[in-house]
């Protein structure tokens, strides 16, 4: 595929192509208006776009199924040996850059899939925000897993298994709850068994990505394209809150069960640095979606509004629960109040009768 892409690139423009296709893309709305632009796409350019999208997907697969385990293993060896050699540091740096690049390509791929009708242009500031966001998030996550596994080697398998199986079965659970038909349009040559294998591999990759960072591409088996095109702020908020709580819990367990092996490390300072590093990743994520996202004009609500609504939701639930309790109590007390009012009206009527009788007798 790589050799063919180079051959097509160097031969492009030398021979006139027999036919071209016309694609229509809409620009980002300016002052409330959008313009549709027609563009002629030749056969060579179409093939290069196909190769480029394939390279993007391959970089994501290589990053999270190859470089992520490699980085975790090399860092674990460094912790046990209390030594970082030059060769190992270069290997860890290349692995981290590979993971960050794969996560960055995953973000750009998700944007282009969700907004396929628009001409998306990603600015350098957006690339910088994504790079910093993914670097802080992935580096702190890998460090937390390595520290926890160095003191509780058996329990780390349970943590990894729960995370992996949870994210792997989550798309299937949603697919089962929605009672959607089985997807048949993935590939015409695939049978039902082959389609199931492809879907299992897709959810396997989705779980591998979410083990280390938030997957920008959300798998949705009920969608014809197998990818959710809606911007679900609530799911992202819940993910980062739970992930931050999990990282804090794992660091707490490491701090409690750490041995004399870590006497050379200032444990409280390291815990604080890792938590701050993860929060820095969340900060750059918020900056990206609030200011640098290439399609922020198409959002129905900004991420700050979504976060405020997420935090206001428990308050409204509590208020609704209190109002229902007060309504129930008022309904319980209402018969007693009616009895009391009836008794008071009877007393007033008897007093009026006595007054009338006395007045008539005096008359």
Automatic annotation (TrEMBL):
<dbReference type="GO" id="GO:0005886">
    <property type="term" value="C:plasma membrane"/>
</dbReference>
<comment type="similarity">
    <text>Belongs to the XK family.</text>
</comment>
<feature type="transmembrane region" description="Helical">
    <location>
        <begin position="197"/>
        <end position="217"/>
    </location>
</feature>
<feature type="transmembrane region" description="Helical">
    <location>
        <begin position="154"/>
        <end position="177"/>
    </location>
</feature>
<dbReference type="InterPro" id="IPR018629">
    <property type="entry name" value="XK-rel"/>
</dbReference>
<feature type="compositionally biased region" description="Polar residues">
    <location>
        <begin position="344"/>
        <end position="363"/>
    </location>
</feature>
<keyword id="KW-1133">Transmembrane helix</keyword>
<dbReference type="InterPro" id="IPR051773">
    <property type="entry name" value="XK-related_adapter"/>
</dbReference>
<feature type="transmembrane region" description="Helical">
    <location>
        <begin position="269"/>
        <end position="291"/>
    </location>
</feature>
<keyword id="KW-0812">Transmembrane</keyword>
<dbReference type="Pfam" id="PF09815">
    <property type="entry name" value="XK-related"/>
</dbReference>
<keyword id="KW-0472">Membrane</keyword>
<feature type="transmembrane region" description="Helical">
    <location>
        <begin position="86"/>
        <end position="104"/>
    </location>
</feature>
<protein>
    <recommendedName>
        <fullName>XK-related protein</fullName>
    </recommendedName>
</protein>
<feature type="region of interest" description="Disordered">
    <location>
        <begin position="335"/>
        <end position="363"/>
    </location>
</feature>
<feature type="transmembrane region" description="Helical">
    <location>
        <begin position="237"/>
        <end position="257"/>
    </location>
</feature>
């Amino acid at each position: 595929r790589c050799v063919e892409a180079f051959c097509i690139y160097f031969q492009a423009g030398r021979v006139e192509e027999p036919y071209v296709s016309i694609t229509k893309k809409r620009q980002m709305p300016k002052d409330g208006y959008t313009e549709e632009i027609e563009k002629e796409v030749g056969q060579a350019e179409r093939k290069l776009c196909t190769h480029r999208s394939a390279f993007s997907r391959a970089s994501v697969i290589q990053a999270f199924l190859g470089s992520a385990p490699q980085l975790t293993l090399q860092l674990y060896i460094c912790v046990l040996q209390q030594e970082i050699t030059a060769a190992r540091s270069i290997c860890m740096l290349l692995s981290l850059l590979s993971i960050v690049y794969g996560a960055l390509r995953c973000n750009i791929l998700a944007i282009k899939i969700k907004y396929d009708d628009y001409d998306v242009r990603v600015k350098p500031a957006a690339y910088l925000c994504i790079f910093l966001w993914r670097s802080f998030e992935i580096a702190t996550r890998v460090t937390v897993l390595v520290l926890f596994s160095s003191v509780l080697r058996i329990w780390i398998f349970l943590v990894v298994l729960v995370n992996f199986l949870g994210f792997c079965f989550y798309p299937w659970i949603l697919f089962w709850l929605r009672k959607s038909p089985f997807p048949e349009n993935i590939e015409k040559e695939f049978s039902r068994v082959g389609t199931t294998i492809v879907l299992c591999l897709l959810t396997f990759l989705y779980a591998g990505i979410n083990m280390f960072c938030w997957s920008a591409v959300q798998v949705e088996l009920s969608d014809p394209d197998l990818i959710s095109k809606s911007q679900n702020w609530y799911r992202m908020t819940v993910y980062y809150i739970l992930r931050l709580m999990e990282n804090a819990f794992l660091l707490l367990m490491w701090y409690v069960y750490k041995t004399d092996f870590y006497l050379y490390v200032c444990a409280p300072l390291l815990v604080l640095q890792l938590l701050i590093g993860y929060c820095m990743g969340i900060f750059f994520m918020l900056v990206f979606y609030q200011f640098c996202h290439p399609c922020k004009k198409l959002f129905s609500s900004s991420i700050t509004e979504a976060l405020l609504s997420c935090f206001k939701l428990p308050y409204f639930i509590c208020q609704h629960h209190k109002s229902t309790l007060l309504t129930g109590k008022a309904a319980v007390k209402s018969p007693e109040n009616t009895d009391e009012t009836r008794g008071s009206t009877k007393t007033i009527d008897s007093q009026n009768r006595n007054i009338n009788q006395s007045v008539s007798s005096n008359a």
